[in-house]
Amino acid sequence: MTTTLELSTESSSRRAERIRLLAQPAVVLILVAGVLVWAFSQDLDATDRETLNGPSLLQMLYEHMLITVLVSALVVVIAVPLGVLLTRPGWRRLAPLFIGIANIGQAAPALGVLVLFFLATGAEGGLWVVVLPLAFYSLLPVLRNTMVGLQEVDPALIDAGRGIGMSAGAVLARIELPLAVPMILAGLRTSLVLAVGTATFAAFVDAGGFGVLIDTGYKLNRLPVLLTGAVLAVALALMVDWLGAVAERYLGPKGLR
Amino acid sequence: MAPFVNLWEYVVDRWDKLSLQVWLHTSEVVQATLLATVIGVGIGIAVYRSPAGSAVATALASAVLTIPSFALLGLLIPVLGLGVAPSMTVLVLYGLLPIVRNTIVGLSGVNPAVVDAARGIGMSRFSVLTKIELALAWPAILAGMRVATQMLMGIAVVVAYAKGPGLGSEVFSGLTRAGSANATNQALAGTLGVVVLALVLDGIYLLINRYTTPRGIRD
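^ inputs. structure came back:
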């Protein structure tokens, strides 16, 4: 029963992946074009135009992307080396501790973690006040996948590498890590999606992004502003997820595709 | 230790209000999970026999999961207003993916020979589905419900933005009252409350799993 279970899941989710790989960019284009045409054809007054104009939309896109990229970069820089370290002999005993901390990081509500960090840093707000707590929140998928990816490498391959005279470092760099790359990329895609989604909360701590439009539109009761912000945030998230899917497909080692 | 002493005093002092929010948070998440289960298992039953249908349902449900919860809430406010309606809609939509996926996995994992045998002894198509297939898929469906509940615990904090019920309102009051004496206590009570609730519900799922798994397929 286990084999059929795995086979059927894999084929169903692989087909689902293919559908998303093809359909998602089209959906993103339709969403962005649709909402911009609709919003700018509305009867916008001066208040609406303060947020709904080309330069400020581009600024919010930049802020939203910057937060997403910084969070993901921080996650990779912390989680991959940590994952490597925690699978080395001698360090393995510490693995449950770090996985436990990362688990708590993800079980805690992202917004709560963000607000707590904001209050603890003197309620000043700003870019790093968003990036640091969100990186903590998005750490687990990459950390776990790095460790699983490394643990799943066939020990015979490692022995073979050592046998032909490669040092432990060379085995890690040329055998273990390349074989773990697909798992790491899958984890990175999950972290990217978490980061781009939670980056909408940046509006609450004065760090910009499309969340600003949603928050402003809701508080001032401006429908075009609210909907533009929400649709653009959705489109950006779908786009980032799609880029993650493309990376997953094409950045892995050729031999494993 | 000082902030925790304050937090303790805060929690004791406001227990009337906090306990209500804990209850509302739990009730909201549990109801959303149950509703998502009814819909998700329905979708799973409808599509699991067709590979294309399964792929489309999985693709749609996983695309929904990509959408930022705050953006989805923003989209629903103009349509559904504030309060319970948009909150429940957001929670149910996010709860669907793990349940739909696991229902499809569970149902398509049932050994066809078992289904044939059941048909052979004269069971109707419906009783095969309810007594054999769903019973065997139940552990997978329950695992999906567990994942959904864990996820909804955090999303329920976000939906408090639209005047939804629950512990999220503590987090949002902490945010708007930044600088006042109790701001950090409110945010801490809300955040830690959700973590504790999530742990408690996870334990309850373990118990449900222990007592509702059909005896024949228990480990």
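Chain B has a mean pLDDT of 86. Chain B touches chain A through 51 residues (CB under 8 Å).
thumbs up if we can close this ticket
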